[in-house]
Design brief:
The chain has 278 residues and is α/β, with parallel strands linked by helices. It contains 7 helices and 8 strands; from the N terminus they run ααββαβαβαββαββα. Strands 1, 2, 3, 4, 5, 6, 7 and 8 form an 8-stranded mixed sheet that branches. The longest helix has 36 residues, at 20-55.
Amino acid sequence: MTPATWREAEPIALRRPRGPRDWLRVLRRGVPAILILLIGVLLILPLRGVERLFHGPRRPWTGPHVQIVCRLVLWVMGIGWQREGVPMQGPGAVVANHSSWLDILVFNAAMPVFFVSKSEVAGWPGINILTRVTNTHFVTRDPKLARQQAEEFAARIRAGHRLLFFPEGTSTDGRRVLPFKPTLFQGFLDPGLPQGLAIQPISATYHAPAGQDPRFYGWWADMELGSHLLAVLSVRHQGRATVRLHAPLPIRAETRKTLAAKSEAAIRKGLTEALGRC
């Protein structure tokens, strides 16, 4: 997940809790969500230890564990979700559009994935709990570490981890797809990666609660995380999210530019079609 720095649209006025009923909803949704996340963290640490003994670096148990945790958090928050399409088989990674901190919950609910994020996100209060549960893969923007990080990326792919990237480089209002950055896709062309590697594009579409701005769940520009979180937790009725899994794109015979273009086109089409059904 990346910082919300997209500023091409005017941010919406975040809804603030206005009275006892709003604050009761914040507590009724927020407290169980935090407890589920904390229990998830406490359980996943020993689970990974046992998992490592039997499966080495692979994650056949903790992936589904995280998926259950994220589904439970969405449930207690009252946010509905649905998945369209089938997760790909074989080695590969996932690329998706980026709209909100909710992406962590929504994408993991749809399929077990491991996010790739900038290292500074590890220190964000609240988000750092989610990244701990989801075993986020952090990268540092330092040319000296590029080779090392490429090797770590390849090792996780070989271990069967489904790494998820956000090629837009930032989050938006959830109503559009920004141009994908081809440089990200260079890592998929490393000769050290498994044969038969593929990339699966995924599009997430957020449907706002009735009567709210269509961009309600989008988190971008200079929005404060705490204020956005309160707005989501305090709204009377929640909306829903749709995650569409598109056909995987084989890496063979592709370049970083063609991979970026094809992934962007699939995700843009998925978002447009989902918004058209609203």
